[in-house]
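This part of the workshop introduces the protein records we will be handling. The question running through the whole workshop is how a given chain folds. To make this concrete, we reproduce a full record directly below:
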Amino acid sequence: MTALKGRYRIGKRFSFDAAHQLAGLPEGHKCSRLHGHTYTVELVLAAEELSGPGFVTDFGDLAPVKTFLDGNLDHRSLNEVLPVEPTSENLARYLAEWFVEHVEPDIGGRLETVRVSETPSTWAEFEVIRP
């Protein structure tokens, strides 16, 4: 059998409920009014080598993400808690930056992307580009 080169990837999905409104939109645009979503956040991590019994990262090691979402974003106005305009694109980057700083140093895998969905049919993604 030929040994293939590659990398392993895993994903984990979280959800929370929050409200936001977006400034700078044309008058009458529905997103300029305060409204809410059930957000879905999906993290994708990768590794070239598996650790422990064969993990990129133990899914249990991602529990701090749920704790952060529940304590800081769930049932909040994102306009009040985010340091950026609360679009899905900005939220994806914000969560990627938080993850890389607070979770990634203690796990085996490395974050590749964060995808944020406001509805079942839409998403925005931030891809981590490393030097």
Summary: Helices lie at 63-72, 78-81, 88-102. The chain has a mean pLDDT of 96. The radius of gyration is 17 Å.
